[in-house]
């Protein structure tokens, strides 16, 4: 038979950015193991609405682990203790019957709370706008096979590019640093010949914007990579540092 | 009452139409571009690529999205790939062949000139994306790799692992970010379009709801582009993301834009089967899996019964007792038949009792043979992330036991009617990407949605919109205090007040689920006259229930996620009715629209070209009146219309 569990859900409620937040407990019963974590919150929200209470607000969208919208801090880990998956791909079969599950929003100076479990991650867009691109206009491209790229290089760039911009790295970091996020984009583009031309400018601009927006420094604790739902590697930060130092030396 | 729809197809031979158009269209000079504003609603592949390209050209662009960042649009979830006629594999591909496959795949219900243009610009898309730093898969020699998709006998699909949509969207998002940085594009996130503002017969602005503050906001521009995706979530359960909705398109429809072919809904054959009533969405397994996976059900009914009861497992059934029904029925294309054909074939087997899971609504997709042939490592390299996703969701290891799949609502070919310039029946209103109807006919081929979204946004709209704007250079910017803005905002406010005032006892989701059940049962894979009439009746009842029984907690100001959903569901109800109307009127089977009364003896779709070779365009009449249908005839001049054949 399929497994069902009962547990206490301790969830963060906060009316808006300016209000004080608090934890609220809900008893959950008979939740099927095949329910995803977000579907479990749907079930609770249906119940709350039926009781004429306001549902818990949380960001979510694709529910297949790729949009980067979901952003829950579950039992002390971004996207939960499972590792290698987003909250939407976390299933209730991974939790113990009778346990207490604590859900909080991302907590970081760079991501202020909007309501309940929803935070403002527009800082990530601003960092991207500072330089996370190749400066090429539509229509200005040559034939796609004109520049050969070794498979290993393309694969490594793809691994870096798999970042979904969810913010788990910032939430996991005791300094609230966005280094892994920045490093993933800088690495992807610096590895490819198309992005190499602007590599120095890009690294400097993105790092400067990150610092300006109040994200902390990187002290190489590695918590970001350990909690990244897409397993983006810490080696990207090493590459970012190299690109950054090269750029500074050239100045 | 007879409205003539002018599709504005340029003169000349098929292969020269687009070149001729570009050579003769009107352009806007750089100084004038700075004085012209364009609203783009949506930041998926179509919206982001259009906003970025228009910004690069020097227009002032206002770009809106519903999520917290443009990068989250649902294009991000497309897995398999993007088609282009590069013929890098030297397997006989060409622009003409991609055009022909798309027309045939669409069951001869798309416009030739549009589809040819799509095939023509497909190659530019790949060049553009590579230049942006999209890390497509490559061969050891450093050239780009390709794979095959359904409905094609060549390998023309470019891919980036199982995350092609993500990488293409991030490419478009980076181009967009560059234009934001330059000040050419202004981004408005967490905003949802609520109405279109028309001044003197032209689209001049929109009303949006700020999802954080709950405030209504007004934005004015010289032209409005909607790139808001499809209406698949009408069915409640689909592979679409939770916030995907058809509301922007429905609002344009209510304001006078014609809605074309709403009944052409794509049901994707390879999704993870449904498992419970709490389920919020269905997960797609990429079509690319059909390259190496073999689809089967048992030959013997008693084996199927044993599988359903759980007394037998897939691996207990020997090869000779397995029915590889796609290979049996369609020897030439085998497991790579188009989506509509594969979905119907799965339904046919399950309806006859051969389903393989506890609900009887699943078939096997088996990689045993690929693993025997290629080794587990190669299979892992090709599909590793998809297998991992499958295992996370189902708790079963697809390297050891076959996957179970079943069809689910995935994409909508129908949408806002547009002419060759992608302009709707409202002047100055353009529709691009999935939210228009233009290129896929009655069925879309795999890896063609990404192609169309980017074709529209990078290479078509930036040209065609100038032909419209060239006449607008002397038009000054509009005041947002004009009565037309007042009226539109007042309407939206009244709609919200009405919803908040219901104070019933049903949740939004519970009503949406009931609508979805009706849609899936009567307007899904197999449709009949009686079923569709019943659906229309039941949808009417749902509408009454919704407007008298829905309960929305909280306030209309500030963030209110239930109110957001309710506003969308109100439109899904209207959309569902429109799909049913269209399906009822189309007395033939074609592509994704299968009327059980119209099939061949072998159970294949039976088209009626003599009577239905047209685009059905629905015109909103308002006040509870049924919509009026206007036809755009499809005149095939270059392709010989035939019965689709994937057998030989």
Explain the overall architecture.
- The complex is a heterodimer of chains A (251) and B (648).
- Helices cover 37% and strands 15% of the residues of chain A.
- Chain A has a five-stranded mixed beta sheet with strand order 2-1-5-3-4. Chain A has a two-stranded antiparallel sheet with strand order 6-7.
- Chain A is elongated.
- Chain A is of the alpha+beta class and 251 residues long.
- Chain A folds into two domains: 4-115, Ubiquitin-like (UB roll) (Roll); 122-250, Orthogonal Bundle (Fumarate Reductase Iron-sulfur Protein, Chain B, domain 2).
- Chain B has 648 residues and is α+β, with helices and mostly antiparallel strands.
- Chain B folds into two domains: 17-267 and 411-472, 3-Layer(bba) Sandwich (FAD/NAD(P)-binding domain); 268-410, Flavocytochrome C3, Chain A, domain 1, CATH 3.90.700.
- Chain B contains 18 helices and 19 strands.
- In chain B, strands 5-2-1-9-17 form a five-stranded parallel beta sheet. Chain B has a five-stranded antiparallel beta sheet with strand order 11-15-14-12-13. Chain B has a four-stranded antiparallel beta sheet with strand order 16-10-18-19.
- In chain B, a hairpin with a 2-residue loop joins strand 6 and strand 7.
- The longest helix of chain B has 25 residues, at 561-585.
- Chain B is globular and about 75 Å long.
- The two termini of chain B are 46 Å apart.
- Classes of the chains: A alpha+beta (251), B alpha+beta (648).
- Chains A and B meet through helix 1, helix 2 and helix 3 of A and helix 3, helix 5, helix 6, helix 12 and helix 13 of B.
Task: Give a concise summary.
The complex is a heterodimer of chains A (about 250) and B (about 650). By secondary structure, chain A is an alpha+beta fold.
Task: Give short descriptive properties of this protein.
heterodimer; A: 251 residues; alpha+beta; Ubiquitin-like (UB roll); Fumarate Reductase Iron-sulfur Protein, Chain B, domain 2; 2 domains; 5-stranded mixed beta sheet; two-stranded antiparallel ribbon; 9 helices; 7 strands; elongated; B: 648 residues; FAD/NAD(P)-binding domain; Flavocytochrome C3, Chain A, domain 1; globular
